[in-house]
Amino acid sequence: MEKHTVSASLTDNTKYLNRALPVKKSFDIIERTLIIGGQNSAFYFIDGFTKDEIMLKLMDSFLNISADDMPEDIRRYMADKAGQSIRTLEGFCNRCVTGQIKAKESGTNIKQEEIDKIADTLWRRVSKTVNIEKVQEVVENIYGISHRDIVGNKRNKEIAEPRHVAIYLAHDLCQYTLVNIGKHFGGRKHATILHSIEVIEERIKEDKSFYDQISQLKKTILEQS
């Protein structure tokens, strides 16, 4: 493994870790880019091996709500119900925050039974199989392009960006290798698919609004799968 001096640049550090770890080849090693305290940060995990305290800290960053508004006993119960999967944590937190806000309007806190219901609903939804055709369909509809465009060879920005997005989402949501993803995008090679993923990952780190857009696309795809 190459030697690396920790840099002040998050981009440089994540590029090194992405080379050193099989992030793109393994479904178990997860990289997540978060905005904490207004600053970009990156976390690397083996999915399913995250300690409860780490999950709690991650939840605090996702919740974006004060301890007074979401008491610690509720947050700890949420951490327990969230299990150890980073992949589904953000959506779970968002739904719990919505439930807590509604409960506070009545002078109460979200009940454990409501948290259980959110967890059960989300876990069933995430357990659905997402296929590449659905990813392509949603991206094509959102960006207003044809299927021929998304799998074709046009490189203008209006086509290239949604193609990059679709490839990134296919990698993130579907249980396919990079080679198989390439077959669904006009027979593109492994290196080309990897390039598209890296383009979107870099933009997500630099652009909060684009990060939100990608998160909404994921939600739409899961809801329609």
What does this structure look like?
The chain has 225 residues and is mostly helical. It has eleven helices and two strands. It starts with 9 loop residues before the first helix and ends with a helix. Strand 1 and strand 2 (39-46) form a beta hairpin. Helix 2 (52-63) packs across helix 4 (89-105) and helix 4 runs antiparallel to helix 5 (112-126). The protein has a two-stranded antiparallel ribbon with strand order 1-2.
Rg, rounded, reads 19 Å
Please report which band the strand proportion falls in: under 5%, 5-15%, 15-25%, 25-35%, 35-45% or over 45%: 5-15%
What overall form do the CA principal axes indicate?
A: globular
Largest sheet: 2 strands, antiparallel
Order of helices and strands: HEEHHHHHHHHHH
How many helices in DSSP terms? 11
Assembly type of the chains comes to single chain
Considering DSSP H and I runs of 4 or more, what fraction of the residues is helical?
Answer: 55-70%
Record the strand order, biggest sheet: 1-2
Structural class: mainly alpha
Cα distance spanning the termini: 40 Å
Number of beta-strand segments: 2
Low-confidence stretches: none
Mean of all residue-level pLDDT scores: 81
